[in-house]
Design brief:
Elements: H1 4-16, H2 25-36, H3 43-46, H4 64-78, E1 80-81, E2 88-89, H5 91-108, H6 142-145, H7 148-182
Antiparallel strand pairs: 1-2
Bound molecules: zinc ion.
Zinc ion is lined by residues 1, 38-39, 58, 62, 104, 108.
Length: 183
């Protein structure tokens, strides 16, 4: 895993760049939570589920299918559009929530350790990494995080995730204020 801070930051940066009014701050908060959610599967270790199982860490909760389902369910429960007597789900809200959720597995697939990501579970129980894996994998368990390994992870994520997100955020915000100023 990458740390939950980095996963949340990516969701925030993506949300900030949305140009549609439908991506409200509430939707962005939901997106941040969905970007963090897949690692709730670390509970599988205490339940005795093997790492390589579809239900194990980096398994079903990191899959494309899970991202589609959780984005759809969250859209339907929390963000139904009730205008004009009809109830509908905004495609953009669904799309943003899906991107936030799947961004988790995508970031994890760039990490240096652990098992790969089960993007295609439950159809294919294979685990995948990308060819380049520059992000140092985060230790599992908070006690392991407060170590030299944890510090090295923070430095690695600063370089490859956090600082790029902050720069991206600043660029998006400054270009949108320039556009507003001009119009
Ligand atoms: Zn993960």
């Amino acid at each position: 895993m990458a740390t939950i801070i980095s996963h949340g930051l990516v969701a925030l940066a993506i949300g900030a760049s949305a140009t549609t009014q439908q991506i409200t701050s509430k939707v962005i908060v939901a997106g941040i939570l969905l970007a963090m959610l897949p690692d709730a599967d670390v509970i599988s270790f205490s339940l005795g589920i093997p790492y390589g199982s579809p239900l194990g860490h980096r398994g079903i909760t990191h899959s494309i299918l899970f991202s589609i389902v959780i984005a759809l369910v969250t859209s339907i429960i929390f963000f139904r559009d009730k205008q004009a007597g009809k109830q509908s789900v905004s495609f953009y809200v669904f799309l943003y929530l899906f991107i936030c959720s799947i961004s988790h597995g995508i970031l994890d697939a760039f990490t240096s350790g652990g098992r790969g990501i089960g993007f295609f579970i439950p159809f294919i129980n294979e685990r995948y990494f990308f060819g380049s894996r520059p992000i140092l994998v985060s230790p599992i368990g908070i006690e392991n995080f407060f170590s030299s390994w944890g510090w090295a992870v923070i430095k690695s994520e600063m370089k490859y995730i956090m600082l790029p997100c902050v720069f991206y955020f600043i660029i998006i915000k400054s270009t949108s204020s320039i556009l507003k100023f001009k119009s």
